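Journal club prep — side note

Before the paper discussion, L.F. wants everyone to see what a predicted structure for a comparable chain looks like in token form. Sequence:
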Amino acid sequence: MSTEKTDLARFNNSWYKPGASFLKRGLWYCMNNAFFCSRFPFSGFKIFLLKLFGARVGKKVVIKPGVNIKAPWFLSIGDFVWIGENVWIDNLVKVSIASNVCLSQGAMLLTGNHNYKKSTFDLMTGEIVLEEGVWIGAKAVVCPGVICASHSLLAVGSIATSNLEAYGIYQGNPAVKMREREINAE
């Protein structure tokens, strides 16, 4: 058994580049709290703000109230994307959301974590990619570095710690493939 201890006084993430100036980050913090984290209902204005701060956003995107986005300059959103109430996109690095993706209420996309094996608790980051037609269920979590392949589905309350295969339905903590997703044309 190890006798080493965590020493947060030695934490140093000076290597991390937040991708924007202090002023831009501060301004975004204010805008995010006023128009995203709040109950402000208008998607169009939210999309305008995201683009103003460097996000790439496609057409017909719906952003519900209570959404929290850390860094729009690291965000790319395709067409016809639905982002539900209280979704948290904690994007310390790039998050790519392709077209026809649904992020259900309370879902979390987390690009950062800490190395619990180091006494300095070093910051670790990993980009997240949600390919075409992915559905992230309510209160589900996508962890750093995960790719959710085309039309994969992460069930309610599940945690994706590794990549999801195309058309797979995943459930649990950690999420495991339960079956294939079948989509019927109507």
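L.F.'s comment for the group: The CA atoms of residues 83 and 166 lie 21 Å apart. Keep this in mind when we get to the figures.
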